[in-house]
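pls ignore typos typing on phone
flavin-adenine dinucleotide + seq
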Amino acid sequence: MTLSTSALRDRIATLGSEIAGRVIVPGDSDYDAARTVLFGGIDRRPAAVVKVAGVDDIRAVIALARETGAELAVRSGGHSAKGDSTTDGGLVIDLREMRALDIDPVEKTAWAETGLTASDVAQAAAEHGLAIGFGDTGSVGIGGITLGGGIGYLVRKHGMTIDNLLAAELVTADGQFVRADPATNPELFWALRGGGGNFGVVTRFQYRLVDLPEIVGGMLFLPATAETIERFVALADEAPQELSTIANVMNCPPMPFVDEAWHGKVVIFGLMCFAGDAAAGEAALRPFRELAKLGGLDAPIADLVKPMTYPEMFPPDDPDYHPTAVSLNLLLDRIDRDTATTMLDRLEASDASLRAVQIRVMGGAMARVPVDATAFAHRQSPIMVNLAAFYEGEDDKPRRQAWIEELAGAIRQSDTGAYVNFVGDEGEERIHDAYPGETYRRLARVKRDFDPDNLFHLNQNIQPA
Ligand SMILES: Cc1cc2nc3c(=O)[nH]c(=O)nc-3n(C[C@H](O)[C@H](O)[C@H](O)COP(=O)(O)OP(=O)(O)OC[C@H]3O[C@@H](n4cnc5c(N)ncnc54)[C@H](O)[C@@H]3O)c2cc1C
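k done
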């Protein structure tokens, strides 16, 4: 049943008195702040943003959505590129005030509510010399990143975020509060590890933490030539698994610690993280620093790599930063000289204010988990690439989109897969790229069992079997 807008409004008006959290509606002073998500260009106006305080509140909003037919969005950190954590005219379950974090330093585990960000959890764990890998950005919500997989600075040494997930608690479409772990609802637990927000509203996750008092990490700026890019990738592949890297080949941002002469030039902006002791880290990083010579310099353009704690990899994010960007995710088998040349040529030819080819060499612990152990199906893909370009206004968007698509076409190899957390609004086929073959069919069966009416459809949606 779908109620009229005014009837929905009346029901929302009573919701506030039924729940412990807050209901924010159009006209409230914090409505605009509450409906804003990370990406600019997403300007939706929900009928209500409900800052839920716990399981009962979530149940109440789910019941209201079912009763009224209102569209339901679920928000953790608000970083969905597709804008899935907001809706026009529907209801948003906003988890950001559910921030309880319970770390057991003896057992090395943590229960974390899904209003927390990657940086929140990393900082609290680091106080005990412990860590869990999320992604490269502190403000990403643990809700979205964990449900999609989680590929970050510890991926080669300690696997994906989902490889360190012990259990989850969630409210399902019929209002049940259920637990999922290897022994309880094991199929659901399989699906939650990569299958996204299709199965319910996760209230908290239990993670395994690893000892990590210190890393050697930070930013390393190198000259970008076809040789340095090719060699960077080869070194990242050969490196001890303690080292995870992200090579952003991009026009150099005007950062104060980079010589002005390089601002705007295409460089390798490396993000390096060695999850081990300082001496071994220095040794592993030396060949990367020496790439400067291959690029015709005596030393890196800027070298901020040093011993630090893992949370220091997450510089503070500006809450008022709302980029407008197009992006595309690819999985590659290799990056040889020709591929690197193509990337460089296209980056040089673009005048987007920011354009980047982000290269992540994977493998290590992530690749040792059997492919069918979780709903993330691309563990054997050695390299992940994200193409991105900023656009300035809707008129500018089509040519930026054309640029990434042309570049993707020029470098694509045999692997047609995609990592769901980097897929935007790209249609049904791309959801199947993320969940090929039996992975999709298995997810569809779990979807049928836990959300047969597809209440949770604002996501990379799995159709119930
Ligand atoms: C700047 C930036 C950097 C990134 N870097 C990385 C990276 O290094 N590695 C990586 O793996 N990913 C990375 N990502 C991708 C990121 O993991 C996804 O965008 C993720 O979905 C964002 O999660 P969120 O909670 O912030 O987003 P939201 O928009 O709040 O959530 C996204 C979707 O996840 C689902 N969801 C979220 N929370 C819950 C919940 N508690 N219960 C049920 N469903 C839920 C919903 O379907 C929701 O629509 C990055 C994204 C950005 C924007």
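The CA atoms of residues 127 and 440 lie 40 Å apart. The chain has a mean pLDDT of 97. more later
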